[in-house]
Amino acid sequence: MTVLADSRTKTDTRETDWLARADHVAVEIARQAGRHDADESFVADAYRLLKDEDFFKALVPAELGGGGAELTEICHAIRRLGASCGSTALAFSMHTHLVAAAAWRWRNQNAPTDGLLKRVAAENLVLVSSGGSDWLKSAGDAVKTEGGFLITARKIFSSGCPAGDLLMTSAVYDDPDAGPTVLHFAVSLKAEGVRILDTWHVMGMRGTGSHDIELKQVFVPDAAVSGRRPQGKWHPLFHIISMIAFPLIYSAYVGVAEGARARALEIARKKPEDGHLPYLVGEMENAFASATMALDQMIHIAETEMPGAETTSRAMIGRTLAGQGAIRTVERAMEVAGGASFYRDVGLERAFRDIQGARFHPLQEKPQLRYAGRLALGLDIDG
Predict the structure, then answer these.
(1) pLDDT-derived band at 5, boundaries 50, 70, 90
(2) What is the pLDDT, as a whole number, of residue 97?
(3) Is 154 exposed, middle or buried (0-12, 13-18, 19+ CB in 10 A)?
(4) Is the pLDDT of residue 39 over 70?
(5) Is there a shared CATH topology between the 18-125 domain and the 236-376 domain?
(6) Is the CATH number of domain 131-230 2.40.110.10?
(7) What's the topology of domain 18-125?
(8) CA–CA separation, 282 vs 337, rounded Å?
(9) Which residues contact 183 (CB under 8 A, 6 or more apart)?
């Protein structure tokens, strides 16, 4: 295990109690969560509160005008938010992991991401990710034109896009020399040719506003292309994303599980004594412990290790275990609460639907198992 030392000295700043701020927001959003779920509306009110509390620039280094928060602090804050409103926590985590990865690259690789980070801090920008749906292969066409590229694509699962400023995305350029090449770039959501499509009508996490974004012949200058990589192959950037992003994302799901557990216990304590109830509660406790242990390990990896194939495998194992534990926790919470859990106003039915999203982020369970197995066997992870 490699312990990292920042390549730059942090500026002394007054400490911010991010958990206290998260608790304040959580109380407010709990009142709105059911409504956003029922009418499939974006959690715009929650985003306003998060902006008021400086959460969107929390992980921007203090030297660049941000909050200078640590990854652990914001993971715990997202978990607190998730216990009240899974949609708020998950949508916010998608912005946050983009900022966290850019900050890590600036601190540890001297990458030229400071311009983006300064803009996030100064303009309180909201970043929107399409990375999970694109992953290694990406999607969409990039056609060379004078001074840049014309991008045509449809990006799904673009969480937070109703409040977004910049879409951080990619498309595939058929390079005549290098072959299919993924280009990474940012696009303003107000740019010509960019349109949000009303597609987010789903089972759970209904308030995330994860609509499709359509790009039609959107011009991206050469200078705006921040990275190039071979299509479908593991790249150092994705080892950074795997290490940094998933503790933040799965903090949202562990938060949903934590909220469901608390609600189930509240109901169970009012029930008549039942010889079977302690067993159900014990199963719920074990499931929740496995989720939190896996998440804690993911956070530890992100804060102390260097990205690479081995680190990615351990982070992705944590992602699978945290997701499985969170899903089991909510399932057992419904059993602990009994028939009351079927009623929408109890909140467990929403938690059950929201937690299913933990299944679908990369690497999904079967690809994760294959990756871990190939690595353990000494096989090529791109094979």
Answers:
(1) very low
(2) 98
(3) middle
(4) yes
(5) no
(6) yes
(7) Butyryl-Coa Dehydrogenase, subunit A; domain 1 (1.10.540)
(8) 13
(9) 142, 149, 170, 171, 172, 173, 220, 225, 227, 228
